[in-house]
Amino acid sequence: MIVLDIVFYSFVVIVCIQVVFYGIVFGSFAFYKPRQTTPSTLPVSVLICAKNEAKNLASFLPSILNQNYPNFQIVLINDASSDNTLELMESFAEHHSNIKIVNVKNTEAFWGKKKYALTLGIKSATHEHLLLTDADCQPVSKNWISEMTAHFSEKNTIILGYGAYDKVKNSVLNKVIRYETLLTAIQYFSFAKIGIPFMGVGRNLAYKRSEFFKTNGFINHIDIRSGDDDLFINEAATSENTTLCFTQDSFTSSIPKTSLNNWYRQKRRHVSTAKKYKPLHKYLLGLFYSSQLLFWLFSIVLLAIGFYWQFVVALILLRFVIQFFAIGFSAKKLNEFDLLIILPFLELSLIVFQFTIFIANLISKPNYWK
Predict the structure, then answer these.
(1) Does the predicted TM-score (pTM) go above 0.85?
(2) Is the dihedral of CA 319, 320, 325, 326 positive or negative?
(3) What residue stretches are annotated with the Glycosyltransferase 2-like domain (predicted)?
(4) What CATH superfamily is the domain 35-259?
């Protein structure tokens, strides 16, 4: 009985932690109404780093070239591609004077490192204000540049945007991928909203070039192949210089992975960067994920045994109701509301998936960016 008492009271503490995260931290974004912005016409350089992305560039680059914005440059960075990416870039540049190509060749010191290629692109950009996306992304509207740049000000020099994934009908994997993307966005938007920004995504991110040089670029994590987005933001973002942009015209959309193995490889690489986060960020993220895992474990154990089951059911319902509202209002903002129908399944699937990645990364390190 003593052991069960310990488990029960631990469960109460875990539920309280989850309520704080979902109700207060994530609620800061879920129930936040964005402020009105004034359209901007400041000159912007859009950066796209591509490695063997000829097919995606052919499909998605026109959606950026056709943006409804008066003054923007596109910096296409060819990261030592082995396909015809460079030739495709050159064919676009022949017809569009606002395209600049940066052709990066592999060097022994920076072999296969995206950060090296992206650094050369940032240095080559004409304009101070930078807007970054990936070669497999496309803006969901012609007002993407306008919406994102409208949030720049003398104070706001880092803009966190949302990069969604395309919806695939009748695909459970697609729903799990989109839920993971949604939850990640809720986290980085919410933490930024309460004054402790910790990451952004390179699929949709804007910042002033001066912020890049202020942190000496990627030098403090150049040894890690990934992290050109989240590790840079983790280092450069503050409560004063960071703001959010989540109007639906500001979204980008990317092609999602269609096999579990490919997504697994991608997420292993992404998760490996977390060890470089600031201690406070690592603690808060670790507390959230561990409390999620323990919530499910303790719920199952206590319900299976029937120990104080009335109180256990009440606490489970309380947590799910608060989670439902926090995730639901956020999902509505980010156009992912269809995921709410199977929320418990998606949450449990993601917990199991993330736990396997955690174990795998303890055993070996992922060493690829593409």
Answers:
(1) yes
(2) positive
(3) 45-177
(4) Spore Coat Polysaccharide Biosynthesis Protein SpsA; Chain A (3.90.550.10)
